[in-house]
Amino acid sequence: MKFKGHNAIITGGSQGLGKKIAEHFLMEGANVIICARDEKSLLETKTELLAIAQPGQRVLAKVCDVSSESQVNEFIKYALLHLESINSLILNAGIYGPMGPTESVDLNQWRKAIDINLFGVLLPCRAMIPYFKKNDYGKIIIISGGGATNPLPNISSYAASKAAVVRLMETLAEELKSWHIDVNAIAPGALVTRFTDEVIAAGPEKVGEDFFNKNLQWKMNGATDPILGADLTLYLASKESDGITGKLISAQWDPWSKLHEHRDQLIGSDIYCLRRIIPSDRGQEWKS
Length: 288
Fold this sequence. Notes:
Layout: E1 7-11, H1 16-27, E2 31-36, H2 39-52, E3 59-63, H3 69-83, E4 88-91, H4 107-135, E5 138-143, H5 156-176, E6 181-187, H6 194-202, H7 204-207, H8 209-221, H9 226-237, E7 248-250, H10 263-266
Parallel strand pairs: 1-2, 1-4, 2-3, 4-5, 5-6, 6-7
């Protein structure tokens, strides 16, 4: 078990991809601490995780709203107190937010999605960065995905927050290179989660016919296996990926299991980065 002695924080760890990531870390020998807003589901998941843990492995859980600075700081303090050291910070907590035309959705709900999806990444990072700097090492892994690289009509707060998270990741990666702190984001692919149910419940009149039908098909026939996202998270938390930073990596489409073989080409390049496309990138020469 190559992660024996590794301690991982996982936000939004009570269900969906976060739960799958926690399971994979445990199976590889790590200790985990998960958080979520709902205490009931959090404690149920903790019980399930303890059932697969090996003797000596630790599974901790604490209620935390990642959009609250005070709760995040208490959660990180709790994690460091009980695990003594942290090797990786996995930021999975997120919500879709209001669905419907941007001009008519509830503005408070729109702001709440930004609070959870964007500040829910920023706040744990701010709390953990001083610790990682002190250790001259750390791994920060952010779950991004839909909306980061393509428009997502009628779910604008989610799309805007996920794009913002990727640029925050790229910025933190540059800030923290000198301390050997790798910061990356993952696009896990289309997953069948509570998000799928929310889109179906909203209906085509709110989310659009195409996106509704996609989610209906995913619900009926399955979509991307969440194991891919969990395995990619393990890879980015491993020593093998040291020095790979500032990248948005697709669990489904990118050859991530061998990215360390391309480390030198990735460093300083715009591969797997958000960037502006100019005419010359498409073979066009537009004169002013």
